[in-house]
Predict the structure.
Amino acid sequence: MKTILKFLILSLVLACITISCSGAHGKNTSTGYDLTHNTAVSPQNESEKIILSKIAATPAGVLTQAGNASFIITSNYFAASGRACKSIEITDTANAPASPRTVCEFEGQWGFAPEVLPTTNIQ
């Protein structure tokens, strides 16, 4: 009987821990980031619009022209949110340094993901 009671108590504790850990939604007060952000960042120019229209059919590692810019997908992955995402580097035709960006699927459409932490190109 004691063994069954211990098992039931342990099961209840584990269930409570699982439920409380899976409820990590909303605003993270320690960082100030909104973890429920479900909106893509709008493209800022025509080249970014073209990139989004080509992103689904472009394989990783292939340099692709998009208006006045070119882009290359450096990796495909699933974000912690469960979204399919791609890390890309965008270079304009003026041979500026590549700008890292992230695109993800938002409700079936590819869009630029908001930057959580600004990135810098470390050479």
Notes: Residues 1-36 form one domain.
